[in-house]
Every structure is written in C-alpha cells, then in structure tokens.
Design a protein that fits this description.
By secondary structure, the protein is an alpha+beta fold. It has a domain of 79 residues: Structural Genomics Hypothetical 15.5 Kd Protein In mrcA-pckA Intergenic Region, Chain A. It is built from 4 helices and 7 strands; from the N terminus they run βααβββββαβα. The strands form 2 sheets. The protein has a 5-stranded antiparallel sheet. A two-stranded antiparallel sheet has the order 1-4. The longest helix is centred in the last third of the chain and has 10 residues. The chain is elongated, with a radius of gyration of 22 Å.
Length: 124
Amino acid sequence: MPDAARVDSWLWAVRAFKTRSAATTACRSGHVRVNGDKVKAAQTIKVGDEIRIRIAGFDRILGVRQILVKRVGAPVAALAYEDRTPPREPQAALGLRDRGAGRPTKRERRDIDKLRGRDDFLPH
C-alpha cells in the first residue's frame, strides 16, 4: 500500500468526486485545502492529513485514514476517510411562495418583509 497519493486521485478514489477531472478542476479552482492550505491537484497527501472540499456552497472536512489510488466500492471507500464535517443547520424557507401562486399581494409582501426582518421599510 502506498504511503502517499495525489490529492485529486485520492478524492476520486474515495468517491468525493465522480471523475478525476472534476477533482482536478476543484483543486485548480481553489476549492480543495489540505491542512488549511490551497493545493494543486498533484499535491501529495498522507495518512493524518485533513482535507477541506468546498462542494455546493459548504465545506466538507475529511480526515485521511488510508491512502487509495484506485477507485473502490463505496463501503471500502468510507473506511479510507473520517468525515469530520459538522452537521448543517436546517435553513428555514422564509418568505417562499408556491410556484405558480402569482405575485404576492401588498399584505403578503409586508408579511414576507416582516419575516425577513425588513419591517423598517414600512410606513408608520
């Protein structure tokens, strides 16, 4: 078993990304950090490193437990990392209307603004 691997190859092998090219693109875009530093795709990682990946607007934090260079099945891949990602807080859908409900009335718009904390725009 190797003692180090490329970060893009490892992320693809543990199924963090569907393709290796997607992992490489994420590295180029600055969405991947190893131990707090932005890295290039060819950066080597080793057991014990912490990898932060920005996916869909939030960070996923993975601790490296095992080095993989070939893509493996999901149960085996799950053993290769420790997921340290804190649970996401549920976001309340404030002021969302049903699709096709039309424009809000003046009263509904005031209620939506009040929910969003923008009631200071209302005339007193």
